[in-house]
Specification:
Elements: E1 2-9, E2 16-19, E3 24-32, E4 35-43, H1 47-61, E5 69-74, H2 80-85, E6 89-90, E7 93-94, H3 111-127, H4 132-161, E8 163-164, E9 167-168, H5 169-179, H6 181-192, H7 200-206, H8 208-224
Antiparallel strand pairs: 1-4, 1-5, 2-3, 3-4, 6-7, 8-9
Helix pairs in contact: 3-4, 5-6
Amino acid sequence: MAALGYYVPGDREQIDIQFLPNLEGYIWVFPRCGHLSVGICGKGEPATALRKRLEDYMAEKGISWKGASFYSHLLPSLETPAWKRNRVAGDGWMAVGDAAGLVDPITGEGLYYAIRSADLAAKALLSEIGGLAGQAYRRMLRRDFAFDLEFGSRLAKRVFFGRFLYGSVPARMVQFTRSSPRFAGIMQDLFAGTQSYVGLKRRLIANLNGSLLEIAMNASLHRLVPGRVRA
């Protein structure tokens, strides 16, 4: 997954996330100390096309990239079959973080997995002898989070390209998050990393009736209150 963007002088209080049609990825605007990180990540498109998408978005939002510092890098984003073949340890070595492909295949988040995999590698080295440490490390990774990331890789294309209720999944996800506190809580936990991909479907089904009721009530409120601005 290519990631690129600009460090733009400025300040703001909110984070912006923008999903784009036909892109397995998204645009972000992250406030930082004294500047903004305005970037895009995506799969299946060359970096030049991603940069054009980003600059079009920035122009539309009135964010100038003239004179801003440009950055780019690659993020591991393993497809499901690659998780089966992924080599994270061998004779005399262990890989952690990006080097081991340990990045969320949907969000591109990798910082937590880099720190956590280093912690597990250290525990494996301290608890096992010789060549057994690599085997222990692989088991720890899979039990801790690697299996969940593999499961997430099966969902990635459905999240970005799927359809639900005559609209795209990202559009419906944003609409439901705005209208349902229950659904918003699930999405918050998902992107915070406290909701696993493996257990996501079960939690969505368990909260389905409540979420739909909140969405219906919100829609009714918009119709009943004249002049109310729609989310």
